[in-house]
Amino acid sequence: MDHENGYIDRIEETLIASILGAMTVITFANVVMRYGFNQNILWALELTVFLFGWLVLLGASYAVKKGAHLGVDIVINILPPKPRRIMGLVAVAVCIGFSFLLLKGAWDYWANFANLPGTEGRWFPLGFEDKYRDKGWYEVNDIPHPAVLGWMETVFNEGEDYEKLPRMLPYAVLPLSMALMFYRFLQAGWFLWIGKIDRVVASHEVEDELQEVREQMKEAD
User: Most exposed among 22, 49, 60, 88, judged by the fewest C-beta atoms under 10 Å?
Assistant: First the structure.
């Protein structure tokens, strides 16, 4: 199981690093074209914005798994183990409920762009829509549709050509990231239940950095 988790971690880390690298390359190339050749890569800004959205949303779910979200643990630290575990279970239950609502909202927003039905019900899914408007023909503003994705025209656009990238692709990160976040909170809840962890988040980046500074100062003295 740990080996499988390590493999999944590497996939997530590689994807996040690749997105960050792509953003850097695209932005750098656009700056060179603008100031070096007085031209502009028209689709660069929009693609960078979409990539940044993917980076943030996928990074948020990955941070849940790593316990890297910031948390206030002043109360938790003074509690004995059993009450601490109970508070952790309450907190993770709230997070699971919230991420489930986010998942429903994300699916409902994205589904019609992929010619799929959204869910019925205001807060919880009560089934799928019987009538909905296909929006598979919606495109982004600037990013050209690559030829390698030509098959999407038959599947989602009744054979009509896409001039720009269909919105379903960049927007797909919404249900994907929320599903991952929901899963990560379920995973954290299970680890709390079996006693593997005692809190949902435990990021102490500031404390770690301060400790590192103190050590450096001691070495300098």
Answer: 49
The pLDDT value recorded for residue 201 is 66
Q: 30 Cβ partners below 8 Å, 6+ apart?
A: 40, 41, 44, 45
Mean pLDDT of 184-206: 76
User: Considering Cα of 59, then 64, then 66, then 70, what sign does the dihedral take?
Assistant: positive
Token pair of 167, please? 């919105």
The SS3 of residue 1 is coil
Indicate the SS3 state at residue 58: helix
> For 105-140, what is the HEC assignment?
HHHHHHHHHHCCCCECCCCCCCCECCCCCCCCCCEE
Closest CA to 158 of 179, 137, 174, 144: 137
- Listing DSSP states for 66-95 in one string gives HT-SB---TTGGGS-HHHHHHHHHHHHHHH
Residue 142, helix vs strand vs coil: strand
Taking the CB of residue 56, how many other CB atoms lie within 10 A of it?
12
Average pLDDT estimate for 167-177: 94
- Evaluate whether 178 touches 103 at the Cβ level (below 8 Å): yes
Q: How far is CA 173 from CA 28, 46, 86, 110, 163, in A?
A: 24, 15, 33, 9, 22
The Cα–Cα gap between 128 and 78 comes to 47
Element of type H or E holding 26: helix 2-37
CA distance 198 to 50: 36
